[in-house]
Amino acid sequence: MTQTDAGSIESVLKEDRVFEPAANFSESVGGAYINSLDQYHQLHKQSIEDPQGFWATIAEELDWSTKWSKVLEWNLPDAKWFVGGKTNICHNCIDRQINSGHGDQLALIWEGEPMPEGKPEVRNFSYNDLKREVCKFANVLKDQGVTKGDIVTIYMGMVPELTIAMLACARIGAVHSIIFGGFSAQAIVDRVVDANSKTIITCDGGYRRGKVVPLKDNVDDACTQLADSGHDLKSVIVLKRCENNINWTEGRDHWWDELVGNASDNCDCEPMDSEDMLFLLYTSGSTGKPKGIVHTTGGYMVYTYLTSKYVFNLVPNTDQVFWCTADIGWVTGHSYIVYGILPNRVPTLMYEGAPNFPAEDRFWDIVSRHKVTQFYTAPTAIRAFMKWGSEHPAKHDLSSLKLLGTVGEPINPEAWMWYRKMIGGERCPIVDTWWQTETGGHMITPLPGATPTVPGSCTLPFFGVDAAIVNDRGEEQPANVGGLLVIRKPWPAMLRGIYGDRERFIDTYFSRIKGMYFAGDGARRDERGYFWIMGRVDDVINVSGHRLGTMEVESALVSHEAVVEAAVVGMPHEIKGTGIAAFCTLEPHHVPNSDDEVAKLKEILRAHVGKEIGAIAKPDVIRFTDALPKTRSGKIMRRLLRDIASGSEDKTQDTSTLEDLSVLEKLRESEEG
Ligand code: PRX
């Protein structure tokens, strides 16, 4: 992909294979909701022309304690959906199913990672079970002084109590801010401070690839830093999971089990205004610290419900079991393990650990044992499966699968074809869903019974989504000309802001193209109207489907005493899609004198970044350099570094603004290590 100044982007990908929806798909899922492309186009048109009518009909499928007076109020960039309506998403996930007589049905299936004697621990929760556990924990939170609107930080492994904790927050109107368990203490500090959160829920440890991740230790580290900075944290609630040794601070720390033991299992749902905050989720941007994306109640609930229903074709009272392999610490887990799936009354499966524990066939073992019908994962995982070999899925009966999904980054056609053949047995449609933390739910995606799919394309906009490819002036681009991906109309699950930073919200999303939401991605549309995502056009890199700001990694590197300046860029990576390349200039006393010392310092810096941000941010390649290529005004010329890192250097690139050409020469000559 090359980017020109006008924001138009050339695409080099060409793909002609088209896969029509299988004739028997509808029958295999107990009836497809959308059965033809015509039906899709007709409904899409209606949803764009009359969004209020379209979304009101959908919202009526869910319970509201007070009906809205108006479906949409739109004053760019502020959207209000279901204005005046009151509801509770926890009610719609759980109580609504119980009230309609389905309390005994399976709501949540959980499987732990360890396999003592070859057997995993499995816990099943019916809607009644879930309600009991959620109510108890909701009462615990109340006892701890948590009230409506308070922000509760959750930093746990993938245990059922994580789902219970988030639903308990939603039930009492507290806002959750979930931090992925792979992040470090520093990440906890930043988020707790930004949200001014007083309560942290964690685990003693979390299982990951046979090892214990010391979650409570990380929280303790964070608490020390928080105390030093005068932050007043009230309590830390600790779930016992791994029984690893932990430190304990009397008065602040409480065992989950002890608190829950005495709690009543009765707790009414707090009626929430449609626009009351439901959760905060921090994500990386191109500048500064991660931003707290604000999602509210009603619109998010309706949108995740409908996208789950139509994109995964969830049908209650069938044998469906839905499995999304994401961690709940990311938006995918929020929307498609919990909030979108439970209201559709199809059991949602949650797996605790790694795909290669105890062996590379773990996912397929899970699919066959639980008879998973819809399976949703990420391209980076698919590429890892391919590398591990087709013999692993081949060992298992995957015939229960009816639909496959992917999310997080563009999927290369080769991985798409492998997925279709080796996992889907050439019978399952693949939904390649493009969306973002900010969008709350799927935005561009095939509908499995209607949309012919082409490997590598996320195809067509979902209902109510007015997506377009424009140039920097906001003019729509012709077919096959790359440009900026924008959304021109509000949709129910759109972010409502960046927590505490109105200016950054407007700057980031609504300033580059006047009057439109700019997603940060480059894309093109082909002659069919299908969208092809070409990747980020800002300084955000997408590593294994997870967003990292280059700035964040650079700050982590320069926070080490050896590094004076750092520039971080993305580079192609076989499994991760994009890897991280870091160019660092060193403080003179730390310049290594031998190959051994070079290798050692690189390892130290990688570990340092891991500690500052988390393991996913560790650079794949570090290069030491005397200087970084800069413009005369001092801006680092990242595009040159990107080319050097990817080895696809175009010697004809314009370097006329480069201040010192010898810097580039030296970098070209230096060996990558
Ligand atoms: O670049 C796009 C990529 O992931 C970014 C959003 O990242 P995040 O907010 O972490 O959410 C990931 C899960 C929803 C997007 O800006 N992306 C996501 N899905 C796709 C994708 N790129 C191509 N195809 C997709 N299906």
The ligands bound in this entry are: adenosine-5'-monophosphate-propyl ester
Tell me the structural class. Answer: alpha/beta
> What is the class of the domain at 540-669 in the CATH system?
Alpha Beta
Give a count of the beta strands, DSSP E runs of length 2 or more: 32
Q: Counting H and I runs of at least 4 residues, what is the number of helices? A: 20
Question: In percent, how much strand structure appears in the residues?
Answer: 15-25%
Mean pLDDT: 94
**Runs with pLDDT <50, length 5+?**
1-7
Rg, rounded, reads: 25 Å
- Placed side by side, the strands forming the largest sheet appear as 14-13-10-8-9-16-17-25
Helix content: 25-40%
Distance between the amino and carboxyl termini: 25 Å
CATH superfamily of the domain at 540-669: ANL, C-terminal domain
Q: Sheet with the most strands?
A: 8 strands, mixed
CATH architecture name of the domain at 540-669: 2-Layer Sandwich
The CATH topology of the domain at 540-669 corresponds to GMP Synthetase, Chain A, domain 3
Name the shape in a single word: globular
